[in-house]
Automatic annotation (TrEMBL):
It is an enzyme of class 2 (transferase). Pathway: Cofactor biosynthesis; coenzyme A biosynthesis; CoA from (R)-pantothenate: step 5/5. This is Dephospho-CoA kinase. SUPFAM superfamilies: P-loop containing nucleoside triphosphate hydrolases. It comes from Microbacterium aerolatum. ATP binds at residues 11-16. The lineage of its organism: Bacteria, Bacillati, Actinomycetota, Actinomycetes, Micrococcales. It catalyses: 3'-dephospho-CoA + ATP = ADP + CoA + H(+). Its EC number is 2.7.1.24. Catalyzes the phosphorylation of the 3'-hydroxyl group of dephosphocoenzyme A to form coenzyme A. GO terms for biological process: coenzyme A biosynthetic process.
Length: 199
């Protein structure tokens, strides 16, 4: 029942690696999707966020107003800490439930947890392998601007808000270098899959 953590900074190619591992038969549990699910309209987590940050972080449809919440916590360490204390335990519980469900369905599953904030929130969990998608910050900045249409300042702020690359590389069991071509990234991912599964 191998449990693999896949992490990487913004625009590091992590999603490409996750898709490839899924093609090989891995079960992908997506942390970002879990965050959206636990913050769904009417959820206890969303109610707690509104109580902590005010009703302006809920939009007219009753859903989380992400931009308003982002503006409220960005650059405010205490507010971010408060938000994380609400969201992280719910994400941890729901991810554990999904891991268990995957292994209950097939005890031989390879479960990959696609998690951007591994270093920040989950590094001490009992992972069998930690895979880090890595491209230099300058390359990730280029992708955010050229491929996602972000303003350079906003893109740089998103990169700066995450832990430095060194912190992710320190915890890596395996590093997939995504700074070259897509084919090179997929080739490395295939090799990692073989290594993980002994195939």
């Amino acid at each position: 029942m191998p449990l693999i953590a896949l992490t990487g900074g913004i625009a590091s190619g992590k999603s490409t690696i996750a898709r490839r591992l899924e093609e090989h038969g891995a079960v992908i549990v997506d942390a970002d999707q879990i965050v959206r699910d636990v913050q769904a309209p009417g959820s206890p987590v969303l109610q707690e966020i509104a109580a902590a940050f005010g009703d302006e972080v809920i939009d007219a449809s009753g859903a989380l107003h992400r931009a308003a919440l982002g503006a409220r916590v960005f650059g405010d360490d205490a507010a971010l800490k408060r938000l994380n204390s609400i969201v992280h335990p719910a994400v941890r519980a729901e991810s554990a439930r999904r891991f268990e469900a995957a292994f209950a369905a097939d005890a031989e599953s390879f479960v990959v947890y696609d998690v951007p904030l591994l270093v920040e929130a989950r590094v001490d969990d009992p992972w069998d392998t930690i895979v880090v998608a890595h491209a230099p910050a300058a390359e990730r900045l280029r992708r955010l601007v050229e491929l996602r249409g972000m303003e350079p300042e906003a893109a740089q702020a998103r990169i700066d808000a995450q832990v430095p690359d060194e912190k992710r590389l320190e915890i890596a069991d395996v590093v997939i270098d995504t700074s070259d071509t897509m084919a090179h990234t997929l080739e490395q991912t295939d090799a990692v899959w073989k290594q993980l599964t002994g195939r």
